[in-house]
Design goal:
Layout (H helix, E strand, L loop, with lengths): L3 H21 L8 H14 L3 E3 L5 E6 L2 E11 L26 H17 L5 E9 L7 H7 L8 E8 L7 E2 L3 E4 L1 E10 L3 E2 L9 H12 L1 H6 L6 E10 L5 E2 L2 E10 L2 H21 L3 E10 L2 E3 L1 H15 L4 E2 L11 H4 L4 E7 L17 H18 L1
Parallel strand pairs: 3-4, 3-5, 5-16, 6-15
Antiparallel strand pairs: 1-2, 2-4, 6-16, 7-14, 8-12, 8-13, 9-11, 10-12
Helix pairs in contact: 1-3, 1-10, 2-3, 3-10, 5-7, 8-10
Length: about 375
């Protein structure tokens, strides 16, 4: 039995170096061109064959010396449109973009695991596929690479996300549903413009939109059980063109998060009813565009049990915690509805939350992350 913890410790300086390189050069979803090229360079150095996805991302393959099953390990590679304010010596050099969600760590850890597993490939019973996935932040990257054959011949998949809120040295794993469905929407309200001094001669879209914002909150407070977590957020609201003109058009965009599949099907109809009826009360009209981004993320029980045992080998049983439910979506969910999967939360030991311009993690956590990737793959194939 190889000492994967030691092998991960040996490659940890390399993982840190790679993480800082990716952190300096963040790229947004479907524009991760430099990132993809750097990953390819590293896989070339390790001697791992790969193929590229379109437009970005790639799939590496480590074929073991003995026949067996196939497991995919996934890391997302895209960054956010956030201006970094950490002051780190390796802070973003790409103005207006930042790895504020930790995908730089995922990419670096999977490269580290690739080194570890490549050194063990003669003993591996099966194949490890390395999925460097684009566009997780758009909720569409997983579906994009699935459509390009990423899961062909794959029996199971494992992924993880680093979380600044959890202490470094811990890993979270729970069977069943762990993350919610995550959707987006756009609501448009139409009125009639007129002079701001004579609002009675028009139909004010701004007033109707404001009422819709408030009434949408009754979905979670009055239409669902208080025991059922549902989030309906209005993220943007734009209306009007001048200070003295009654607006004839308003539009808002936002997100919906929830855990119940049946309720998930009902939400668009509820939102449309509230928007249209509220708009009508103000003599306006409303239209809804609703997009399902990510399904609920489900850890298959047997894969979750295997991953838990693997994680315990890395951090010890006392440092494996239940996955605390959050309302953050993850497009890894697309894999979980096709093959058995497990998804872990890696304690990152930071202070600022995900998507903050001050987001940072304790880099020692990446040693555990690298080992976890490799240990899960080894145990799945050789266990």
């Amino acid at each position: 039995m190889p000492d994967i913890k030691k092998l991960a410790k040996d490659v940890w300086p390399y993982v840190v170096e790679m993480r800082r390189d990716f952190h300096r050069h963040p790229e947004p979803s479907y524009h991760e061109f430099r990132t993809t090229d750097r990953i390819a360079e590293e896989l070339d150095k390790i001697g791992i064959p790969y193929r590229r996805f379109e437009p970005t991302g790639l799939l590496g393959e480590i074929v073991g010396g003995k026949p067996g099953k196939c497991i995919a390990l996934r890391a997302d590679i895209d960054a956010l449109s956030v201006k970094e304010n950490t002051g780190l010596e390796y802070a973003s050099e790409n103005e207006g973009f930042m790895h504020a969600c930790g995908h730089d760590t995922h990419t670096a850890m999977l490269l580290g695991a690739a080194k570890v597993l490549s050194s063990l490939k003669d003993e591996l019973c099966g194949t490890v596929k390395l999925m460097f996935q684009p566009a997780e932040e758009l909720g569409s990257g997983a579906k994009t690479i699935i459509a390009q054959g990423a899961l062909e011949g794959v029996d199971a998949a494992f992924g993880m996300h680093i979380f600044s809120q959890a202490p470094a040295g811990t890993v979270c794993m729970t069977p069943g549903v762990i993350l919610p469905a995550a959707d987006s929407y756009k609501l448009c309200v139409e009125g009639v413009t007129c002079h701001g001094a004579e609002p009675n001669r028009g139909v004010d879209a701004t007033v109707a939109a404001a009422a819709i914002v408030m009434n949408l909150q009754t979905i979670s407070s009055r239409e669902f059980s208080p025991l059922e977590p549902v989030v309906v957020t209005v993220g943007t609201l734009h209306s009007g063109s001048r200070f003295n003109v009654v607006s004839n058009h308003a539009e808002m965009e936002g997100t919906v998060r929830l855990f119940d599949e049946e309720l998930h099907k009902q939400i668009p109809g509820m939102m449309e009813r509230i928007a249209k009826d509220t708009a009508a009360a103000f003599r306006c009209t409303a239209s809804l565009e609703y997009n399902i981004l990510c399904d609920m993320l489900v850890n298959e029980p047997n894969m979750a049990a295997l991953a838990t045992a693997s994680i315990e080998k890395v951090v010890g049983a006392g440092n494996v915690a239940p996955f605390r439910r959050t309302m953050g979506g993850e497009d890894f969910s697309a894999y979980t509805h096709i093959i058995p999967c497990a998804f872990a939360g890696l304690g990152g030991g930071g202070e600022a939350p995900q998507h903050s311009d001050m987001f940072c993690i304790d880099e020692t956590a990446m040693e555990n992350g690298t080992a976890t990737y490799a240990q899960v793959a080894w145990d799945y194939l050789n266990g």
